[in-house]
Specification:
Strand content: 5-15%
Radius of gyration: 29 Å
Largest sheet: 6 strands, mixed
Number of strands: 10
Distance between the termini: 113 Å
Order of helices and strands: HEHEHEHEHEHEHEHEHHEHHEHH
Structural class: alpha/beta
């Protein structure tokens, strides 16, 4: 009996501990509910002071614990490629009476261009075929004027590969600067014709072969070969094309795009034509490229290719990323589906780039400007109430030192006429 008070005290102490522990688990939720209730009362008092009636008070509800939807969490930077938005270019649509829609490929999440799709497709295919193995010392070699290299360099970092990029020395400096920041090895090669082994494409191919043949070097050399590798075409046939079709609800009258490797226009054309046989596929070709004549007359030739008149090795134009003077597997994969071609000169491209900033706040690069000039030409040819889709490839920030240096600053200009874009005055 003498020990009973001590037993009571011990039991009470234990009960207190249990109660405290239980309260600690419950307290965060209790505290959260208290502060939400307090904020609601305070907000309602403020509204009342503003003259709102009690019926207009706001009742804050807690949906955090009601099983609300959770945003999708994606895996790696590669998962941010594709699914780019399609938006209406308001100024061009208003001027032409057509609906001119732009696929915002500059919003691809790795390298910021449609080449993200291509780079990922080529790497995935090579891995499936056992030609590449992550974190094995394998190096991916590619010859590119910039965007494909940037996409490859980004995904190489994500996948555990090294990137070796051969780029013509006359391309915009910011592209090679970005490649270096991404950890790629960059080799600048002088402009040369495709038959020259120092042409940037041939140089990359040869380096990859030398790497693989050297037993002293870790890993293998893989030549991505964007011009001939049909993983390029497949990226757009299985991705860009279906996205456009779905985003347009199956209602598209024309698709307009430029071609460098030809993967985009061929892949999209192959998909859209299979579902919309009457759709018009149009090539947008910069000056100096022979692809316009390939579509129009079946011959690869441009007047600037006359002996003694050529200034650059690939395309005699300030436009980068599109235009070509040789047949590629990716272009030929869809060439028969291309209905027409439009030639766009440098002055038109520069004027369109300025127009898009002036009227729409859209700051894009040279190939995107070419695409938009061609889209307007086709809109005028088809007449009002047609829907035309084109591609915006990359931001203008990759073209500051060349294309935009020539385009100049816009200033406060707001009165440009579309006719002056299509027929710019010298």
């Amino acid at each position: 009996m003498e020990n009973r008070p001590q037993l009571y005290a011990a039991a009470a102490f234990a009960a207190g501990i249990i109660t405290t522990l239980g309260f600690m688990d419950f307290y965060p939720d209790l505290q959260s509910r208290f502060w939400r209730s307090w904020r609601t009362r305070r907000l309602n008092r403020s509204l009342a002071g503003a003259g709102l009636t009690e019926s207009k008070y706001i009742d804050l509800e807690d949906h955090e614990r009601e099983g609300g939807s959770v945003a999708e969490i994606r895996e790696g930077i590669e998962s941010c490629i594709g699914g780019t938005p399609l938006f209406k270019i308001k100024s061009l649509s208003d001027e032409t009476g057509c609906e001119i829609l732009a696929k915002a490929e500059f919003l691809n999440g790795a390298g910021g261009s449609p080449k993200d799709r291509v780079a990922l497709s080529m790497i995935n295919q090579a891995e499936e075929e056992g030609l590449l193995k992550p974190h094995s010392g394998d190096t991916i070699y590619e010859g590119t004027v910039g965007s494909t290299g940037i996409s490859l360099a980004t995904i190489c970092r994500a996948r555990g590969y090294k990137a070796y990029i051969c780029i013509p020395s006359d391309q915009a400096a910011e592209k090679s600067d970005l490649l270096l920041k991404l950890g790629a090895i960059v080799e600048w090669v002088p402009p040369a014709p495709i038959i020259d082994q120092m042409h940037f494409v041939n140089r990359a191919r040869n380096l990859a072969a030398e790497h693989t043949a050297d037993p002293k070097r870790p890993g293998r050399g893989f030549y991505a070969n964007q011009f001939e590798n049909l993983a390029n075409f497949n990226a757009h046939f299985g991705g860009t094309g279906p996205e456009i079709y779905q985003q347009c609800g199956g209602q598209v009258d024309a698709f307009v795009a430029g071609a460098g490797t030809g993967g985009t226009i061929s892949g999209v054309a192959r998909y859209l034509k299979s579902r919309l046989p009457q759709i018009k596929i149009v090539l947008a070709d910069p000056q100096g490229s022979g692809l316009y004549n390939r579509i129009k007359y079946g011959v690869l030739f441009d007047t600037k290719e006359r002996e003694g008149t050529r200034r650059r090795s690939q395309v005699d134009s300030i436009v980068e990323g599109i235009g070509c003077n040789r047949v590629t597997a990716n272009f030929e994969a869809g060439r028969v589906l291309i209905d027409d071609a439009v030639k766009v000169d440098d002055e038109q491209a520069l004027a369109m780039a300025r127009w898009l900033v002036e009227k729409d706040g859209v700051f894009v690069g040279s190939s995107s400007a070419v695409n938009c000039v061609a889209a307007v030409m086709i809109a005028k040819e088809l007449g009002p109430k047609h829907r035309i889709v084109t591609i915006l490839c990359d931001y203008g920030t990759r073209h500051l030192s060349r294309f935009w240096a020539k385009a100049g600053s816009l200033g406060g200009k707001t009165d440009t006429e579309l006719e002056n874009v299509l027929d710019p005055k010298p």
